[in-house]
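Provenance and format

Records in this collection were gathered into a single text stream. Each protein contributes a sequence line and a token line. The two records reproduced below are adjacent in the stream.
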Amino acid sequence: MPNKETLSEEIIVIQDIEELRSKAGRLYHKVFTDKGDFTCFEDEVVAILKTYYDEKITVEIATNDRGFKNIRRYISSIPNVKMGETKQTFKVPEVHIGDPKTQTMYTSYAKDIFIALVAHRMDALTDKDYDELMHQAITQVIRAKEAFK
């Protein structure tokens, strides 16, 4: 009889990630969170999760009829909002590039990353979501630029 799975989105805070091997020898990860323990078999997802220790993130969870909970994909990070704060604003990092050709190149990189991030999201996006994704895209370009200095 096939295992039936239910998909849901959950907001979690990652506390730790442990690499394990199944009895069959397959590598997987146990993800310890504020909502309990989950497994994750996708290496790309684990790599993303490792960058969000102690931060609120939204993930897609697959729960099967035997009660196993598996993180299937990372959806988004959730900015810390203080109680009573009604609007979250993102400060776009300043990029000082003297040469207009170089600035155009970095803008193009940020646009490409932004498009990939938007395409990765399967849900409806709000203006706040777009702001957050653009912020993430620009931040990744800045990190890459710094890494190659």
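Adjacent record:
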Amino acid sequence: MTGFISRFQVWCKIVYRTMILSVSSADFYSDVHRRYSGYGVRYLFSLYLISGIILCTCVFVRLLGAEEELSSANPDVEYILRQIPEVYYDGIRITTKAETPFFLYSKNDQKIVAIDPGNELVDVPSKDLLPIFRSTYVKLPIA
């Protein structure tokens, strides 16, 4: 029974490697043609092409799912971006005409980011851990 399992594992590894190479390596096809010219090259090319298409389809479906997740989060991102005041950068530091410190809020009124070019925020309570954009650096929270 263990012989069957080990042969099955080897077969699975070979199929997986073949699928990856069929998508990522052009040299793979010339190698198949050179080694297996008497074993039904058409059959092997068809098998590798089908497995490559299946693998590419799986990757494409995953990418589409990620795009849908990002587009569903888009209204929240737009809400936050609309709050950002006009910020000026002179190559060294940022400044803004808005009253500082300036906070960006999420849709449920939680503070997300602080913009503080005047370094007026000294101590931020631990419950309000958020990134602070200072005039020359960004202070990231360490939980």
